[in-house]
Design brief:
Length: 733
């Protein structure tokens, strides 16, 4: 571990946390690693176990692969010496299925699966899906709506008094009061609703290892109130913490400027004042080159900094459920308090109970990441599924995860909120060892690695040039509106990894399928050349998401100049390599901030560039995302929030959302009638006809004869100007 900084280091950081592989092993280590974590009493008997220490309940099929959460958590706890059982996709109609492995000695761990159960079961139009990629046979209905709630209830029924800890993306993104798209209301924290004993949010390894060892050593969860990365139910704020009403931190106001890490942080008032100084980062730049750069994970806030032992009191559940402006304020503050180096705890009252959310866990360093991925994963589904196909496994079985986290901060994406902005990297040796293990172990490997990536394809080993700035920055994105001067864009470590991977014996091709951040890629032409020459299988999927500035601004995505530059580089290097390769762009329809005219302009761009989209993603308001806050409140939480805040244009209701999706598929005859009506209403009939500048052809006699009378515009067709929420908010002003 890096040594503590001296008192003269004005950032005052220490590294007191124990790394996840430094805990003494639990006594059950003597049983060794299991071929598969047991899912039945028979398997436990074969392993010589009389009981499980921890039982993990999951909404996914059990696949022993490091792309599946239950496998990572189970194998990690196994490496600590604990006996871990898996109950996968149990019948939730009674408690019987939750008794199959007996009573756990320590606790139940509950997660809905790799996906939020509601997103897994319903489309963006709230229609029931008829498939489930995480289920054998791709069948739906193997998990309930809001699976975490049902599983927790059944665990408590099965064995009264056994603690239940919830986690995974479903619980993580519902850790405070949140807008729920499916019920169209603000719901309580999932910890409060589920009546679980603790919620672990984000990547759970660090807090889970600590909590498990402390329970094993005789502590109760009630005694573990200050574990980073956890949320608990309390009667009042924790003793020894200073409270700040969230309106004093953001009144509601502007996003804080980056605090200079080189000022004296011994005085709270001075630190707080630095947040208003726009000159902080400029003064620091000259000093960056003289510092010895350490990973973010080496730093931990200590006494003397304004956020140390300080909590932000958010507006209560009763307030945010009835006041959209205060909901937007609470969401904004919560997003400000997500940097592990400087986050305050959060406190929110829910009636006669209160929620306490500790600051996020510190990210794993490279050695810890290697430790997590070095577990003896079987890399295949559990044998109980026989030959049944699990589509989610088939998609990733020949891929390798090289990093975690994303500093893009896209407003519609939950990766940053769940995994954090700090990139957590595996070592090159660890990644290569996994490729070799996959090559030698996984049935059907033909020599093609389908992906080396993660949340993004090309953020591997990219980080802030100064970890002290990284530890104090509260901005939502490191790359919007432009790439931050502090953010490194050197792709050389990634290029080196690509070259080493494709040189392995038995490896014919290494493809890159993760989402590419092309605004970063164009900063390093050598990377683009390497990627295009060796790692594209004919098509490269990228996600501009839109072409128009207004939607892009609300998405926190780069404008099309970055895309155009990348496209030119892609075509140039493809030609030099003698390859015929194509870019496949992805776009989102009906995103907050998108007007009908924006969708028409996007469709015209698609037609000009001869793109015909087969798949279109309609915006999905998932919990905790900034874009979801925009959708619900009709204000932008990325900007100053007041009662007079400019309203965000929201494509609301089935009629308008389907129109935006239809416009993206302008070439589909099924959509022509709807598009014609919209163009006529917009006064853009000139786009209807046969000319090259037209979007859709004119109506034929046959179409007119078969036309169905238009439905009257009802509640589903309401716009932001006519919705009850807008009327209520305007009256409150």
């Amino acid at each position: 571990m890096p040594p503590p900084n001296t008192a003269s280091d004005m950032s005052s950081y220490l590294a007191p946390e124990k790394r996840i592989f430094e805990y003494p092993k639990y006594w059950a280590e003597c049983f060794g690693a299991a071929p598969f974590l047991p899912t039945s009493r028979e398997e436990m008997d074969q392993l010589g176990w009389d009981s499980c220490d921890v039982i993990v309940v999951t909404g996914d099929a059990y696949v022993d692969h490091p792309s599946f959460g239950m496998a990572i958590i189970g194998r990690l706890l196994e490496s600590q010496g604990f006996r871990v059982g898996i109950i996968a996709q149990p019948d939730w109609s009674s408690a019987e299925a939750f008794k199959v492995l007996g009573k756990p000695n320590l606790y139940f761990g509950v997660a809905a699966g790799n996906m939020d159960s509601m997103i897994n079961r319903y489309t963006a139009d709230r229609r029931l899906r008829h498939d489930d990629a995480y289920t054998p046979g791709n069948v739906s209905g193997k998990r309930p709506d809001r699976a975490t709630l049902h599983y927790t209830q059944r665990c408590k029924e099965a064995f009264k008094g056994v603690p239940v800890i919830i986690g995974g993306i479903e619980a993580s993104l519902r850790r405070i009061a949140h807008y729920d798209y499916w019920s169209e209301k603000v719901r309580r924290s999932m910890l409060i609703e589920s009546k679980a004993d603790m919620l672990i949010y984000g990547n759970a390894e660090r807090p889970l290892v600590e909590v498990t060892h402390r329970i094993a050593n005789g502590e109760s969860l009630a005694q573990m109130q200050d574990v980073r990365g956890t949320a608990i139910i309390v009667k009042q704020p924790l003793t020894g913490w200073r409270g700040k009403d969230s309106t004093t931190l953001d009144a509601p106001g502007v996003i804080d400027a980056i605090a200079s890490p080189y000022i004296d942080t011994t005085a709270t008032s001075q630190c707080e004042a630095s947040n208003d100084s726009a000159d902080g980062p400029k003064d620091a730049k000259d000093a960056v080159q003289t510092l010895s750069i350490k990973p973010m994970a080496a730093y931990e806030p200590v006494k003397g900094q304004p956020w140390f032992k300080t909590y932000a009191k958010l507006p209560s559940f009763d307030v945010v459920k009835s006041d959209p402006i205060m909901y937007a304020h609470a969401s904004r503050v919560m997003h400000h308090e997500t940097n592990p180096g400087s986050a305050r705890a959060l406190y929110q009252e829910h009636g006669n109970k209160s929620l306490w959310v500790n600051p996020p866990a510190m990210p794993l360093d490279t050695e810890e990441m290697d430790y997590v991925f070095a577990a003896p994963y079987a890399r295949v589904p559990h044998p109980m599924y026989g030959d049944e196909k699990i589509p989610a496994y088939d998609m990733i079985r020949f891929s390798v995860n090289i990093m975690r986290g994303c500093f893009g901060g896209c407003s519609f994406c939950s990766i940053t909120e769940h995994e954090g902005r700090i990139i957590q990297n595996r070592s090159e040796d660890s990644i290569i060892a996994e490729v070799e293990d996959m090559r030698d172990k996984v049935p059907g490997f033909t020599g093609v690695v389908s992906d080396l990536g993660g949340p993004t394809a090309n953020m591997y080993r990219l980080h802030c040039k100064d970890p002290k700035v990284e530890a104090t920055c509260r901005l939502p994105s490191c790359v919007h509106p432009t790439i931050c001067d502090y953010m490194g864009t050197d792709h050389k470590p990634l290029i080196k990894l690509y070259r080493r991977a494709r040189a392995l014996p038995g490896v014919k091709k290494v493809l890159i399928a993760s989402g590419l951040r092309y605004d970063l890629a164009i900063r390093d032409p050598e990377y683009v050349k390497e990627l295009v020459t060796h790692h594209v299988g004919g098509y490269l999927k990228i996600a501009p998401e839109h072409t128009e500035d207004e939607p892009l601004r609300h998405m926190l995505k780069p404008n099309m100049s970055s895309y155009n530059k990348f496209k030119r580089m892609f075509e140039k290097y493809s030609k030099e390599a003698g390859k015929e390769q194509y870019l496949i762009p992805y776009f989102i329809s009906a995103h907050p901030g998108t007007r009908d005219i924006d969708m028409v302009n996007l469709a015209l761009w698609l037609k000009t560039n001869k793109f015909r989209l087969d798949q279109v993603q309609n915006f999905y308001p998932s919990p905790m995302c900034n874009a979801t806050t925009m959708y619900y409140t009709e204000v932008n939480p990325l900007k100053k929030i007041t009662r007079e805040s400019e309203r965000v244009s929201i494509p609301r209701g089935i009629r308008q959302r389907r129109l935006h999706k239809a416009i993206l598929r302008y070439h589909d005859p099924k959509n022509w009638a709807q598009i014609r009506d919209a163009l006529t209403e917009m006064g853009m009939k000139k786009l209807i006809g046969k000319g090259p500048s037209c979007l859709v052809p004119a109506e034929t006699r046959e179409e007119a004869r078969k036309a169905v009378p238009k439905a009257k515009k009802g509640r589903q067709g309401m716009t932001k100007h006519t919705s009850p929420r807008s009327q209520k908010m305007r009256r409150s002003r």
